[in-house]
Every structure is written in structure tokens, then in C-alpha cells.
Amino acid sequence: MNQSDHVSSTGTIKLLSVRALVVRFGERTVLDGLSFDVRAGEIFGLLGPNGSGKSTAFQALAGLVAPASGDLALSGEPMRTGDRRLRARLGVVFQQPSVDPRLTARENLGLAAALYRVPRAKRTERVEAMLHFAELRDRADEPVSQFSGGMRRRLELSRAMLHDPELLLMDEPTTGLDEPSFQRTWARLDELRRTQGVTIVLTTHRPEEAERCDRLAIMDAGRIVTVDTPGGLRGRVAGDVLELRTREPERVSQLLSAELGLASTVDADLVRIEAPRGHALIPRIVETLPAGTLESVSMRRPGLGDAFLVLTGRSLASDVAPQQSSS
After folding, report:
1. How far apart are CA 296 and CA 95, in angstroms?
2. Chain centroid offset of residue 140 CA
3. β-strands 294-300, 240-246: how paired?
4. Which of 127, 191, 203, 308 could form a disulfide with 109 if both were Cys (CB 3.0 to 4.6 A apart)?
5. How far, rounded to the nearest angstrom, does the alpha carbon of residue 262 sit from its chain's CA centroid?
6. Which residues are CB-neighbours of 159 under 8 A, at least 6 positions away?
7. pLDDT in tens, 234-287
8. Contact at 8 Å (CB) between 317 and 48?
9. pLDDT mean over 106-121
10. How many CB atoms neighbour CB 116 within 10 A?
11. Could you tell me the maximum CA-CA distance found in the chain, to the nearest angstrom?
């Protein structure tokens, strides 16, 4: 990789470059030639349902699994996943809780500071700064077992930032959090990017979380389908989204195709239709279908879940069958 590869066509510095990353578990190919770039200072998301390969990509970047092949560069410098130089520049937040519930918040951060080799003279200062960042100074000496899920998440984020990493890697950062905790977690992520210029790469299956990213890589079956901004992805859905709830979704889909020439997708008891001027289409649909067929009809603007469905044919709520080895 030459120096020019470190700068994108727009002149933006590329902090992280991943090229043709392949990960296999036995005979199964989980990541099949994954390639993407992350610009310095952006929030970049890997969006996909369970089984799409996004958590394996996180594990490979964090050095937890060894890829069969592929290249990785940080600030234009080639590195192997798991390289100590890479780990020193990374902050990592796992999906599953990893703080010790028996220790206090202060003890967890102190232990992490030692593991990250934060100089002794700075450890107390860094621990106090991160307790303040997490809004946990008044609970600093209580066992973490007494903390709520949102408090633990803030502590994990603070622990990952103890050594001032330039790249923060997060796996499903808000899974299981209620709405207030979701908002508080993202307030802290936005603050880190704004005040410290931290670059963030995260995995998620939540459309509302993906909307917070600057750019998204749509992942399906271990591959990246496309990379775009949230707005760009939503723009790939034509017009409005109509959702018809019915006990006979397959029959309704067939009738709409035969009678009105409408293409639709079926998801459980919902029939989805993308169409311009959806409000004008609703009366025609209701008149066409036999009385009592529909339980409800709703219309909304397209979201990232709709874009994912258009691009992959799958719902973000679905589980993807494991990718089989192509070797």
C-alpha cells in the first residue's frame, strides 16, 4: 500500500483500510472478501441482522479471530489483525458485559489503566476523568453488580477510552438498553467524536442506531453489499412504504400483483409495497381486495430497514443462515 492509498478521492484521510478479509470457521466461510475504508473522524457502521458476519468482522479487527487472508492498514501502515501496535491504538467495547461486577467502577478503571499501561503518574487523573465522563463519580466506589445496564455500558465505554485510542471499535453498543440509556450512550459517542476526534466503527442491527452513523456498510452473508450514507440508502427506496396487515399475506400479495400490477414483499403478517404517492394508492388497494381481508393499512416514509430489505431481500430482524465455504 503506497502513501497515496492513505488519502481518499475526496481528499479525506483514511484511518482504517480493510481489503479482501476472509475468515473461516472450519469448512464455513463467515467473511468472504470484506473490503471497506473508514475515514478519520467519522462514525462508520456495519449494518446487518444476526448471522450476516458483522460481529465476526468486529472480532477480526479486535484481534480475537485470525483471518485466513486479507490486508489491514491503519493510517496507511500495514498491520495484521491482533498486532500489538493496532491494539494500542484501539479502544474496544464488546456486546456482552466485560467489566467485573465484583469490583467497583473505580477499581475496574484502575485495573484497565494498568493493563493498558497508562503511566502510573497519570492513572489517577485518567480514572477520575473517565468517571466524570461516564457520570459515575457519585457511584464510583460501589460494586458494579449494583449498576443498571446503562451505567455498566457507560463504564465499559469509559474503560475503552482510558488510553486515548484514536479508533473506537464497538459491537452492538446499545443492545438491551432502554431509550434513555440509548440516548445517553450516543450523547457520549458524539461527544468523543466532537471533542477528541475519535473515529468510531460499530456493528448494529438497529435502524435507529444506524441513522447515527456518517456512513454504513450493508452486510449480508459475510459480504458487503454497498456502502453509503443513511440518506443515500433511504433514497434507494422508491416513494412511500405501505404496510398491509392481513391473515393471508401470500394471497394478498398475489392479488395485488394480478389486479394492480404491484410488486410487494411478505414479512410475517405484513405485505409491504413501495410506491410514489402512496396515499393515492391506498383506496385502490382497499377496493381491490375482498372485504375483511385487511386488518390495517399504514403508510410511512422509507427507513433504513426498508433499504436493507430492498438491497438484500432480507429483514434486519431475521437470522441469516451461515455462509457456506466457497473453497
Report:
1. 36
2. 30
3. antiparallel
4. 127
5. 32
6. 99, 108, 109, 112, 130
7. 998 878 899 999 999 999 999 999 999 999 989 889 999 988 888 899 999 999
8. no
9. 93
10. 18
11. 76
Q: Which three cell numbers stand for residue 183?
A: 440516548
Supply the angle between the helices 149-160 and 120-133 in degrees, to the nearest 10.
Answer: 140
Residues contacting residue 306 through CB under 8 Å, at least 6 positions apart: 234, 237, 241, 272, 274
All domains of the chain, ordered by start, with CATH?
Answer: 42-63+84-233 (3.40.50.300), 238-301 (3.30.70.790)
Task: Give the span between the Cα atoms of 316 and 320, in whole angstroms.
Answer: 9
* Cell 440509556, residue located: 181
**Rounded (to 5) percent helix, strand, coil in the chain:** 35, 30, 35
φ and ψ at residue 119, rounded to 5 degrees: -50, 140
Residue 94, C-alpha cell as written in the block: 464488546
| pLDDT tens digits, 26-83 | 999 999 999 999 999 999 999 999 889 999 999 999 988 989 999 989 998 888 877 7
Q: How long is the chain?
A: 327
Q: With the C-alpha atoms ordered 84, 89, 91, 92, is the resulting torsion angle positive or negative?
A: negative
The helix (H) or strand (E) run that includes residue 228 is: strand 223-228
Please give the span between the terminal C-alpha atoms of the chain, in angstroms, as a whole number: 27
Residue 210 sits at φ, ψ, to 5 deg, of -60, -30
User: What are the cell numbers at 229?
Assistant: 450514507
CB contact at 8 A, 323 and 48: no
Count CA atoms closer than 13 A to 7's CA, side-chain side: 5
Interstrand relation of 240-246 and 90-93 (parallel, antiparallel or unpaired) = unpaired
